[in-house]
Amino acid sequence: FVSKDCFVVSSSLGSVKLLAINDSLGSDIRELMSWDSIHGFSTGDTASCTALTTFNQDIATVGEDGKINLLTAQEKRPVRRIENADSCSLVCIDFLRHNEILTSNNRGHMKLWDLRNDSDTPATTFMLPDQLK
């Protein structure tokens, strides 16, 4: 949820939608914004948006394509894209603070991203001890 009556959903087609609930109309749900195909492979094939997180009106998404998208509920265009965040599918994301996100891939690697940094590299990477060899 980005507010008491607005929430965000993702799809296996790589899209993200901002929806609103109107309780006065018997739980009517309407689309406020749509970011279509923001996750996809360089071949043109779609990639699932596998996870999203919110912090106030800000939204961060990850996908099978290894990309991170930073969105805001007020703008149609992504605020920022990190194209090569990971070489494999990203499966979870969470805002730690407004300017920090934590991502994880399907191999169990976690990366901490400082969004104040213009560089598209993580501030820290965490791996299991047996993967450091």
Automatic annotation (TrEMBL):
Q: What is its main location?
A: nucleus
Report what the protein is called.
WD repeat-containing protein 55 homolog
- Output the PANTHER family linked to this UniProt entry: NUCLEOPORIN NUP43
- Quote the subcellular location field of this record: Nucleus
Gene3D superfamilies tied to this protein: YVTN repeat-like/Quinoprotein amine dehydrogenase
Q: Superkingdom, according to UniProt?
A: Eukaryota
Q: Which GO cellular component does the record give, naming just one?
A: nuclear pore outer ring
InterPro entries according to UniProt: WD40/YVTN_repeat-like_dom_sf (IPR015943), WD40_repeat_dom_sf (IPR036322)
Per UniProt, the keywords (alphabetical) are: Nucleus, Repeat, WD repeat
